[in-house]
Amino acid sequence: MPIPFDVRHTDRLRLRSERVRGVRLAAILVSVIASTVASRAKAQAPGEEASAQVAMSAANRATFFLRNLSTMSPTPLGADADHAQAWPRMSWRTNKSRSGDQIVRIARKEKVDVTGDEDSPDPRYGPHWTVKYYDGEIEVSLDPACVSVGRFVDLVLVHALERDPPPEESTCLLQDAAIRRGLTYAKFAGIDLAGLTLYTAQLVDTIHPPTAAGRTWEIRWARQWNGVELLDQDLNMSLDAGYGRLISFHARMGAPIPADTRLILSATSSATLAARFLTELNWPPAGLPTVALRIVLPTDRWTSENGRINTRSKNSRLAWVVRTPVRNPKDELDESRYVEVWIDCANGAVVGGDTGGSRGRGAKRALSAPVDCVLRVLGAARSLQVQGVERGAAARKIVPGKDSLRFYGALSQLLPLPPAGAAGGNPATHRVLVHLPGGKSETLSYDAKSGVISDKDGNAAKAAKALRALLDTKDD
Amino acid sequence: MHAGGKAVAVGCTFLGLAALAMPAAGDVSGIISRPAQYYSGTNSGFSAEVMTTTPGSYLVWATMYVNGEPTASYTWNPGDPNFTDWGGPLNFDSTHFQDGQSITVSIAGINNLGESGGVGNPARPVYNKAYVYGNDWQYEGTLHDGSPACIHANDAFVTAHHTVTPNQSGDAPLRQHKPDIIAALPPSTALYAWTHGTATKFGDSSSSMQVVSAKWVDWSDVCVGVGSKSSSQPPFNFVFLDACLVGSESTLADSFGVSAFADRAFLGWPISVPDDQPFEDWSWRLFIRLASGDTLLEARTYANTHGDGQPHDNNGNGILATIYGDTSFKLHGVYLGAALSFWR
Questions:
Q1: According to a count of CB atoms within 10 Å of the terminal CB, is the N or C end of chain A lower?
Q2: Chain B partners of A328 at a C-beta cutoff of 8 Å?
Q3: Helices (DSSP H) in B185-331: which residue ranges?
């Protein structure tokens, strides 16, 4: 039954609290039913038609997700169903030309299709069923158990906002509000937030002249396990900047945790192995490598005939990702080229990697600053030196040592904050000298009370438990 | 389409309708306005009207055709008003036809007395030509992924019945120098390039990081090239410069003349972007969807939410390609229409 969105706006708070209780109960019910159905479900091939039973289960779960989204829409009274992200949407779509002189109405098909997701063979994503509404204008992709949402694309909302003026920057949703909404959407989607670390939240303009469809909050969470980031495992969301309606949602959470998590090889040894591998490939290093601990899905990058990644293993590995600057064979001035070699932490095998570089120079352009610099510095750390800011305070050195999984894993556990988080927070209690490859070093400020760690440019991040335990500054 | 009861007599110009196998012409005639010199892009259009002037007659059937393919039509049913004229504007996708093909547009009708007639426009050429080139170090360039990127773009343009130059079967697309690019601007209606870029310039197939005038095409070069189009060369419909920074400001989009008109658009990256497989795959996904009838905004959304998803810079920050111009631009399928619908 359609949600009466006019009623929703008149007494939103009361309805919301009632709905949240209802949502939880219904979610449990749906999950139980879905799990039963899913136990009989087979793997999904792209385009495979779902059985009637699976199709019903998937459509029910997807519709439940869409109804949940509709409870979150804060659009003003009188907004149409497409703008309000209500459920169901309008029975026709209106396409307007840029100048508004041509308006075309296209009837929407009520039929719901459930097929195997086209990205099912990709182990980064994993098997999914895709439920398509209105001829694919709305797409909800579900895991085989029909419990968690892997992808959501709302082209109905995109079309509705496409010709609308953008919200003034001063009236855009604030970053923390956008993130809070994102977390709620993730809960609706059944995503386990415990394994995610907020990476970036940027307000961007991607259409000129600006429209409401192009002024969005782009939020990214990275998946991590025991403080170790999983490569290519993340959750990306796009929210309209005015009201925070969910435009798209893409969760790549398919990689399993490695069966073998032994960290036998050191970062230094892995760099040596990577350098040897590069020499065999005739890629002489042009600088010192940076090394980061990651969980990866091995690829055929170095064995495929076409020099591309064609297949990925379904079994993940704990690996040192060694990124080494290399010379561009055709451009001596190009300092952007690198080769990444993934070294298995347990046995030193090369399990993947890639080459990369840049197609130009210049800084990024976004309406809010990125907050990843601290993470980048710590991720490459060879060792840390922590010292209180008061005169004469003793310095304590932290090296990876035997527990390097904890060291590098902890250094990945940072919750980025907006730059104001550093300026507006408590003054730093400690300095953290980060020793980087090549004898370089960088100093970060750390406030032991709040856990906020920041660099000289004001980029800030909040240390999670593992990193705070590693820094362990209470005895200083 | 509209129908009305007021008959307007016009000269019975019955052109090119022999193939429609209509009954002998009577006092039914047609008129076509907005005649085009060429048909380019997915927002081609014309207006046509058919009318019956025989006293006491009314139309029982009428149809518009694009190159003989029936599009909008009208059939009288008992109880309907007796219309003496029917017609209106019709928009169609010129990429439904192969570039270079000459096509006619026409309208025909039959009245209740069995008299028939209509009008056809003289054949006009379809004009959709894409220019595709890349920078790849296996040839003359300094980038890694120029060659496969060109293949994906070429596939999409061919699907959308464009003529693609230079010939993509050899290595010519990877050996395009600045004079070649400038010379290709007047005859082209679409451009794709995987190369180096700045906010106001983009490199040729042999360009490097260093901006050298001999190898970099400046926005003013583009203005000259676009400005020298002849009256038989349509404007650009779509430009995707798959290069750094070209989308950071509107200079290049404006110089191609695609940022201020319906069904024309420019796509470019707003910041420095990697030369790697995830970005190449992103462009691939985009082109697949464009060739399937998505609008540019829909295709971009698809590319950001499937496969590798939204591309990231080396620090894990998402990067979104910037659209200048009409987000509803379509490479294939009629503008403002559903998917690959050919007309509306």
A1: N
A2: 137, 142
A3: 219-227, 251-255, 277-291, 296-305
